[in-house]
Amino acid sequence: MLLLAGDVGGTKTTLALVAINGGARIVAETTFASREHASLEDAVGQFLRPSGARPSRAAFSVAGPVIGGRADITNLPWVLDAEALRGTLSVEHVLLVNDLQATAFAIPHLRAEQLSTIHPGTSDPAGAVAVVAVGTGLGEAMLIPRSDGYEALPSEGGHTDFAPRSGVQRALLAYLQREMDHVSFESVCSGIGIPNLYRFLASRAGPAPEWLAKELAAAEDPTPVIVEAGMRRDGCGTCRRTLTLLAAILGAEAGNAALRMLSTGGVFVGGGIPPRILPALRSRAFHDGFTRKGKMTEMVARIPVHVILEPRAALLGAARYGLAMA
User: Fold this and answer.
1) Does a structural domain hold residue 105?
2) 216 phi and psi angles, rounded to 5 deg
3) What is the CATH number of the domain that holds 132?
4) Are residues 155 and 303 in the same domain?
5) CA–CA dist 63, 135 (Å, integer)
6) Residue 134's domain spans which residues?
7) CA-based diameter of the chain, in Å?
8) What is the pLDDT of residues 90-143, one digit of tens each?
9) Same-domain status, 157 and 263
């Protein structure tokens, strides 16, 4: 028997075939640029066609809320419907699960080398776990231990109102409010938010170096350019400040998630961006943002924070949901 597992995001979609006879192992895997395909069905067809494989069921983690078996993908013009997919893919069952919910479901199965601790603390094995993921957007979820395993719950916390904590952040909010009606945490703490931070800081610092201006002009997506320049010692000062500001905002929202969910089991930071900016996340900016919570400072400071280094966490979580469904 074969399970088709997928992680559908605004930037990329990863599909895998999992053999589920006598255990579970991934036997094929491919990553596609999401926007190069008109639909998920199109990407699945390209994935399965060369092998002629016929999976019996499918499970997809999706970047967006799943309501009634239907999902509108955030930051991607795809609409997924489990029942419609079941027919078009000719499989017995299709499960759609929020990508952060899938990531949370995978956490108990991650190995030590798939994590990097950026804030030490003491984890309560019986405590809830918060997940905050910085990718194209900002996703959040929670994991609750049960007597018979774990329950992962989705959230759209990344779309809550951005709450500035400093003079610079208040100026950032005012700057963005001139451009958009709603400034969410995703607007300032995600792949789509990093250019907003950079533009704000550049408006106060002056023109970018000529080499950076050329790279930004040539790039379809400015975020990787800004991140790479910010991580280089000889890179751009404004880009470095962009990553410092990002770390401060992410630290604050990770601390907010810890409070909302009382996540004494830890906070796990996922997504594609955090592993690329680990030095920035180990900075005082992240630490202060995470721990400075007034009356709750002492409690939050005891909660550990780990970065998920495994890039396929959501895919592995979707596969585990699919196996449980089987």
Assistant:
1) no
2) -65, -40
3) 3.40.367.20
4) yes
5) 10
6) 111-309
7) 62
8) 999 999 999 999 999 999 999 999 999 999 999 999 999 999 999 989 999 999
9) yes
